[in-house]
Structure formats: structure tokens, C-alpha cells
Amino acid sequence: MKRIVLVTGANSGIGLALCERLLTTDSEIHLCLACRNTQRAMAARSALLHSHPEADISLLKVDVGDMNSVLEAAKEIKKRYSRLDYIYLNAGIMPNPQLNLKVFVKGLFSRKVVRMFATGEGLLTQEDHVNANGLQKVFATNVFGHFILIKELEPLLCCPSMTSQLIWTSSSNAHKSAFSLDDYQHSQGIESYSSSKYASDLLSLALNRQFNRRGLYSSVTCPGLVMTNLTYGILPSFFWTLIMPIMFLIRFFTNSFTLTPYNGAEALVWLYKQNPESLDPRAKYHSCTSGLGNNYVNPKKMDLREDTAEAFYKQLLELEHKLRQKVGVAEEAIK
Ligand SMILES: NC(=O)C1=CN([C@@H]2O[C@H](COP(=O)(O)OP(=O)(O)OC[C@H]3O[C@@H](n4cnc5c(N)ncnc54)[C@H](OP(=O)(O)O)[C@@H]3O)[C@@H](O)[C@H]2O)C=CC1
Ligand SMILES: CC(C)=CCC[C@@H](C)[C@H]1CC[C@H]2C3=C(CC[C@]12C)[C@@]1(C)CCC(=O)[C@@H](C)[C@@H]1CC3
User: Fold this and answer.
1) How far is the CA of 119 from the centre of ligand 2 (A)?
2) 229-285 pLDDT, tens per residue?
3) ipTM for the complex shown
4) Residues with CB under 6 A from ligand 1
5) Chief location of this protein (predicted)?
């Protein structure tokens, strides 16, 4: 029986490299590319079919930052499939990133320089906005849209006598200090990306508590620093090109400069092959690349509290309830 794998944000960067690698790893796979832009999704499908002509690939239109689009997409998935084996919750944004040069230069001469390059802690700020659902855009895209998708697809993910896996593309940039239960959408701060990634780590932990007994397992990964559209948004591309030799040099000091989407997908592919019951719900699985370019996976314990994860999960359920009422009222008004 073919394994059914859905990947959000599959049309570029780490998501696309992941799809390519999954097709190489497993020929008995149905890949569903869940993307917001049909043309970009079709281009990705063509590229994948070029290298894997026999591959079974379908497209699904979904904007994970838009509640209505997620609900529509979930309806479509339920029509197409009776079960799902894997969902890669990979789509993500970091809008209007600003590099804090002062912190960067200070960091270069501090003892924390390696950590600074590995996590980007404190180096980046973002400007976030409110979306059409009244949610902070980064939270809606990186966390809440995926949460709704999982909730909607619960019957396909929790099937008797089989296990399913949720695999998040989180980040080592997820920091406890950027997240607060009182402002979990991060409407007050300027580190919405870091907050959203910490939120996804908390959510993954809570999902394991809620769903493991029904055969659904959730894991988080960090792909390392990868050159993708997301990182090209931080500094102009000519600058990245200029510093590329330095980036390869930094690899000898930190294994987190994976740099290519192929390398960045290492932990995501590794998790595909694991028995989910053997995984640690408190571990973040990091894609690593050595100075000589060898890839491997390094699990690291996350700094998470079970009670915070539970409280956050409750808040998400309340927000879901509120928004479902809003959507319901809007649908009634149209009728
Ligand atoms: N690059 C890096 O160094 C790191 C990246 N990550 C994470 O990896 C993930 C993938 O990013 P990466 O490959 O780097 O960057 P890309 O920008 O190349 O990929 C992001 C993908 O997400 C999609 N996407 C964004 N918003 C939405 C939305 N609202 N609905 C549906 N799809 C959406 C994009 O689609 P579209 O093409 O239409 O914009 C794109 O396919 C992200 O979650 C990111 O946070 C984590 C750590 C490091
Ligand atoms: C390499 C040189 C000489 C300069 C680049 C400095 C920064 C632009 C760069 C250093 C560490 C990087 C980093 C990220 C973005 C770019 C840096 C801040 C991320 C925050 C990108 C997104 C992620 O999710 C993290 C895992 C990255 C961590 C490191």
C-alpha cells in the first residue's frame, strides 16, 4: 500500500528538496504538494517528475495563513484520501526581517559567537501584520493554520492499527524568551518568527500528549541555516554570494550551516524512516553538515515545560472555537 505524504510549502526551498529526497527514498509513495500558488506548485511537480518520471504526485491549493483556505483544503483532502501517513508542516514565513548589526558585531567578539551563528539569537527582528482573520500573520502561517489542518484531518491521521507522523520544520531560532502565553500571537514584540517557532515546539509536545494513544506522533526538526527564499529575504543576494566562502569556513566551527536545501532536509527525511514510537517528544532533530560536507542528524533536548504546552494547547482550542463561530456566522450570512 502506498504511503500518503502531504507537504506544506512544497514548491521551494527545504520543502521541495524534501519531496525530491522522499521520492528517492521510497518509490511506494503518493506525494501531495500543498501550496498556496498553483503555478509555483505545478512548476515544482514538473521538476520532481523530471527527476522521477514514475512518481505519483498530486497538487493541493492551500494558504495555511488563511483559515477558510485551510478548511476548504481539508475538505478536499477528505474527499481524496481515507488516511494520511505523514504530514510535513513545513510552510513558513519570516516577513520584513531586519539584521541588528550592532548585536552582530558585538556577538562576533563574544564567547557566544558560535551559538550566535547557529541560532541567530537576538540578531533578527521582524515586522508583522494582522491578517483577514484578525490573527498575526506569522503566527497564523507558521502555527495556527497547521494546527487547524491537523484538527480537521484527525480522522485520517488517527486510524486504527496504523501510526501517522506530523513533522514540523521548526528552527534553532525558537526561543523561550520570545514567547509568552499572554501574547502567544506575538502582537506586541518584534521577534514573531522566533515566537512562532517556539510555539510550534510547544504544540508538538502537546499534540503528542493528546494523540499518541491514538497512533499519531509529532516531531520537530531544525534544518540549520539554509540558503532559500526565506534567507535571501534577510540580506541582498549579492551579499550572500560575497560571503559564501566565509559561510563554508564557518561550517568547521558549527555543524548548523547546512546551506543547501538538500542538506537542510536531512532530519526531515531521517524522521520518515523512523518508528515514531521510538522518538523522543522533547527532542528537536537537527540537520547537521560537517566541515567536510557530511550530513547527519543530531537530536537535542528542547527547553519546554509540559504545563506551558498544555496551557498553550488550550488557548489554541479556544481560538479555534472563536474563529469557527466567526466563519460559521459568515457562511450563514452568505446563505
Ligand atoms: N532557510 C532556513 O535557514 C531555515 C528555514 N526554516 C523553516 O523552513 C521552512 C521552509 O522554509 P524555506 O524552505 O527556508 O523557505 P522558502 O521561502 O523557500 O519556503 C517556504 C515555503 O512555504 C510556503 N508558504 C509560505 N507561506 C505560505 C502560506 N501562507 N500558505 C502556504 N504556503 C506558504 C512558500 O510558498 P510560496 O513559494 O508561495 O511563498 C514556500 O513554498 C519554514 O518553516 C522556515 O521557517 C527553519 C530554519 C532555518
Ligand atoms: C555568515 C556571515 C558572515 C554573516 C551573516 C550574518 C547573519 C545574516 C546570519 C548569521 C546567523 C544566521 C541565521 C539565520 C539567518 C541569518 C543569520 C542571522 C536564521 C535565523 C534563519 C532562519 C532560521 O530559522 C535559523 C535557524 C537561522 C539561524 C542562523
Assistant:
1) 7
2) 999 999 998 999 999 999 999 999 999 999 999 999 999 999 999 999 999 999 999
3) 0.98
4) 8-9, 11-15, 35-37, 40, 62-65, 90-93, 141, 169, 171, 222-223, 225-226, 228-231
5) endoplasmic reticulum
User: Are 143 and 171 in contact, with CB atoms under 8 Å apart?
Assistant: no
Distance in Å, CA 329 to ligand 1 centroid: 32
Kindly tell me the sign of the dihedral angle through the C-alpha atoms of 147, 148, 150, 155: positive
Sign of dihedral through CA atoms 218, 152, 89, 77? positive
pTM to 2 decimal places: 0.97
**Domains of the chain by start residue, with CATH:** 3-334 (3.40.50.720)
d(C-alpha 84, C-alpha 100), whole Å = 42
285 is known as an active-site residue: no
Amino acid at 311: A
Catalytic residue among 184, 193, 262, 272: 193
Cell numbers for 122, please give them: 537576538
